[in-house]
Amino acid sequence: MRHIDLISGLPEETQSLAAASGFKESIMKKDIHPDYHEITVVMTDGSERKTRSTMGKEGDVIKLDIDPLTHPAWTGQHRIVDSGGQVARFNKRFAGLGTK
């Protein structure tokens, strides 16, 4: 195993402490890190961005449902998204709760 000398750039006091404790820094192991490749991200407005990621394979496409163009944290517009009438069903189901 090869070692990198990280101690020589440290102050003398720190070098002596590190040497006394047997400190050695190893090089990163080979073939254990995920593949880092280019992918395409499609924003909600259809625009595309190229980026690098460990997700998927080279050339894969990610289509976003929410991005900085539509998320309230970035747009400042807060709205209730009622997918499938869930809010209406909730209101109908619990309309009489607490009236007794």
TrEMBL record:
SUPFAM superfamilies: L28p-like. The gene is rpmE. Part of the 50S ribosomal subunit. GO terms for cellular component: ribonucleoprotein complex; ribosome. One of its GO terms (molecular function) is hydrolase activity. Belongs to the bacterial ribosomal protein bL31 family. Type A subfamily. PROSITE patterns: RIBOSOMAL_L31. HAMAP family: Ribosomal_bL31_1. This is Large ribosomal subunit protein bL31. One of its GO terms (biological process) is translation. Binds the 23S rRNA. InterPro entries: Ribosomal_bL28/bL31-like_sf (IPR034704), Ribosomal_bL31 (IPR002150), Ribosomal_bL31_A (IPR027491), Ribosomal_bL31_sf (IPR042105). It comes from Puniceispirillum marinum (strain IMCC1322). Pfam families: Ribosomal_L31. Keywords: Hydrolase, Ribonucleoprotein, Ribosomal protein, RNA-binding, rRNA-binding.
